[in-house]
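User: Hi! I'm working on a homework problem where we have to compare a predicted structure to a textbook description. Could you give me the structure for the chain below?
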Amino acid sequence: MEFKIEKKSKRTNARLGLLKTNNGVIETPCLVPVATQAVIKTLTSEEVKNTKSQILICNAFHLHLKPGENIIASSGGLHKFMNWNKPLMTDSGGFQVFSLGFGRDMNVGKILKNIPDNIELLKKSSQPKAVKITDDGAHFRSPVDGKKLFLGPKESVKIQEKLGADIIFAFDECTPPLASYEYIKKSLERTNKWAQICLKAKKSKQAFFGIIQGSEFKDLRQQSAKFINSLEIDGFGIGGDLGRARSATKKILNWITPLIEENKPRHLLGIGYLENMEDIIKSGVDLFDCTVPTHYARRGIAFTSKGKLNLRQSKFLKVKEPLDKNCKCFVCQSYKKNYISHLLKAGELTALKLLTFHNLYFFNTFVENIRERIKKGIL
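Assistant: Happy to help. Predicted structure tokens:
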């Protein structure tokens, strides 16, 4: 893998880059759509390419559960298995330590939108109900068949190597919001240790990204940034919970980007709302994965230049116009709001396909326009 910064903004920390892999070149900054089970739900790989998507991220934990990394390896690796001839990433399974653990227990995501009443901060010794986190790794119950499952840094690397993506990530603990300083400090020590174990275990030539953690605590974020920066890695992941509001993400990024090597790509894990996308890019982030365009599509939501539209509302049955008059995707060129609204109300899966395609195309075009603004010196 090679990464070259083509241009730096004179106004912000935004930059244009080219990320070269064996399976193609990525123009950064870039959205990375989430193909959890080696698929963007409702779309074929050929259709995903037509949304202007340059790279996808698959979920190592879920692909380990089904169909299993050995089946994928015997099929020639993820690229051939899913008929995707562009770059791929795989995450490490660290997010599932959170989502199946404290995330489920506390009913929270990576960014805390609403602080639950009477919530207690996690203590140093706290453990989630369904996941046991140790210094060696995490013990799960498989969400598929309930069997005991262990995932640690060595296991994560082995799985990701068999999957064969261009870029793999260190195994880490994605920490929850509302954890105490003491808990985050202990977790960070464990994550740093796991990063070293991952590097020693890695045998492949895949690009390897270390992950910066530390929650909302400045000294821990900066400590993590310095440590991960000291390792022989190819790029940076920025993970964990990212504050108690979306505005906190920018603050956290500004703490750490001055401390990491400039000429390596930076990937923000699991964040990419339209409303904070520009701030993320202005903070120096090159890549970011996000489920928003696809997840919202399956709920009947279309993103447009006029804002979000809920096509499940009956009023759209009378609207004979495209989702967005300014959008050039095939959905907006060929279908009207009233038809898509009808499909949703009729329970037809084609509605989800049309909305997913449009949303991905809209998000990729949004980032494409930001790249153009950086190129012209506007941003």
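For your comparison, note the following. The chain is about 40% helix and 20% strand. The chain has a mean pLDDT of 94. Good luck with the assignment!
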